[in-house]
Design a protein that fits this description.
With about 450 residues, the chain is of the alpha+beta class. It folds into three domains: about 230 residues, archaeoglobus fulgidus dsm 4304 fold, CATH 3.30.2170; about 150 residues, no CATH class; about 40 residues, no CATH class. About 25% of the residues lie in helices and about 20% in strands. Strands 1, 2, 3, 4, 5, 8, 9, 10, 11, 12, 13 and 14 form a twelve-stranded mixed beta sheet that branches. A hairpin with an 8-residue loop joins β13 and β14. The radius of gyration is 25 Å and the shape is globular.
Length: about 450
């Protein structure tokens, strides 16, 4: 129906899209929130008035990760976490908490059996590390390392399990609730500090028992694009933030996490809640700064774009406006939209721990947000806190960093017969598409 001499698919697409976005009636509340939704109107905007005489001490925490190697049976990543301390525009000296941590992580999927356990072929120290029992298996380090119980399996570095060969290891946390007849995949992540450096890195790395996650189904997920890929990094961010609250911040100071205060994994939210509870007890205010959001209004408009349009009806250069007091069930963040610099091109989603925000007076809210605004005047990106930019810089794992580690892995693989074929053969099974793109590109 579109075939004619003047047909241009781009013009037609843009015309249809313009009709779609311009024909809707606005309904200016956030879509999908489970808590109270605030109508976004000019009267709801509150001016931010920075007061340089009362800046709060703020810690900005961030993390980053990048894939080094991936195959259907493993994912190796390089992870970093970092934090910075600022008071207004000025950097603050830390009290000794390690400012940057780097570690490798390896995710290994294990196929579930009908008891919720899984079958394992050992970890390199012997044959058949774990053998299946009545619906479960145990990880072992020797020949036939351990046999499973009646549904369920043991993972880790201690405990029991029937040893059939040379001192195989069962133990650890039990996985599985008896025979269910349902297949699943257990993702077991292990972490490896890049160096000791004379510092106890364990204080900044996630707990081993927290790094187990499960997925139902018969097909493994694409690990690099799965939340499983960054679970270790996200848990390490929470661990670092916990150390920062404990050692670097005092009552009235502020912790600014990168991203939402609500998390995807149960264990992640459990650890985050422990962090938040510690902060509340100590009087440290907890915030989450979200750089990008896909939230929309109930009429389908992009939320922050619509907020920015409505803000033009006010006379404020910097402002905040309430969005909702609870976006998801179980989430603890009170969500605001904020503009932190007169020349900012961006509006950001800012979450503040709900019980803390609701307990603040209007003046206390202004001091908090004004402190963020004082830190958001960097010419490179006005309106985004400079402390968050610095934390991001040191936590980011750039492409050239990942390439350097890949070269190191390649040198180990080629120079030592023990490791020959460990990564190349598995990775080759998912490299065909990339190779085809190079050939045809």
């Amino acid at each position: 129906m579109y075939r004619n001499d003047n047909y241009n698919p781009f013009d037609r697409l843009l015309s249809d899209l313009k009709e779609h976005v311009s024909g809707r009636a606005h309904k200016d509340v956030v879509f999908g929130a489970v808590g109270e939704k605030y109508v976004i109107a000019p009267s709801g905007f509150i001016e931010i008035r920075p007061d340089s005489s009362r800046p709060k001490k703020m810690a900005f925490v961030d993390g980053g990760n990048n894939t080094l190697y991936e195959s259907p049976d493993h994912l190796i990543s390089l992870n970093r976490t970092s934090y910075t301390l600022f008071q207004g525009r000025e950097a603050v000296q830390d009290r000794g908490t390690k400012q940057r941590t780097e570690f490798l992580s390896c995710v290994v999927p294990r196929v579930g059996s009908d008891g919720g356990g899984y079958v394992d072929d050992g970890d390199g120290d012997g044959d058949d590390g774990g053998s299946g029992g009545n619906g479960g298996a145990a990880v072992g380090d020797g020949d036939d390392g351990g046999s499973g119980g009646n549904g369920g399996a043991a993972v880790g570095n201690g405990g029991d399990g029937d040893v059939d060969g040379d001192d195989g290891v069962g133990g650890g946390a039990a996985i599985g609730n008896g025979a269910t007849g349902k297949k699943r995949i257990l993702y077991d992540t292990r972490v490896y500090p890049s160096d000791s450096g004379g510092v106890d890195n364990a204080a900044y790395l996630p707990e081993p028992d927290d790094l187990l996650s499960c997925a139902d189904g018969r097909t493994a997920v694409i690990l690099a694009s799965s939340p499983v890929a960054s679970l270790a990094r996200r848990l390490a961010e929470i661990k670092l933030a916990t150390a920062v609250v404990a050692n670097e911040l005092d009552c009235g100071d502020v912790l600014v996490m990168d991203g939402s205060l609500h998390t995807e994994f149960g264990i992640e939210q459990e650890r985050a809640d422990c962090l938040y509870d510690m902060a509340v007890q100590k009087g440290v205010i907890v915030c989450g700064l979200v750089k990008a959001t896909r939230l929309i209004t109930e009429s389908g408009d992009p939320l922050l774009a619509r907020v920015a349009d409505i803000a033009k009806q006010t006379n404020y250069d910097m402002w905040h406006v309430k969005i909702t007091d609870q976006l998801y069930s179980g989430s603890r963040g009170f969500i605001l939209a904020v503009k932190l610099h007169p020349n900012s091109r961006f509006v950001f989603r800012l979450e503040i721990l709900r019980e803390q925000f609701l307990d603040m007076s209007a003046d206390e809210q202004n001091v908090l947000l004004g402190g963020l605004a004082l830190n958001s005047g960097d010419a490179a990106m006005p309106g985004y806190p400079y402390g968050a930019s610095v934390a991001d810089k040191y936590a980011q794992v750039r492409t050239q960093d990942a390439a350097m580690y890949r070269r190191y892995f390649a040198s180990r693989l080629s120079g030592d017969d023990r490791w020959r074929g460990v990564l190349r053969e598995g990775s080759a099974s998912i490299m065909a598409h990339d190779m085809l793109n190079k050939v045809t590109g």
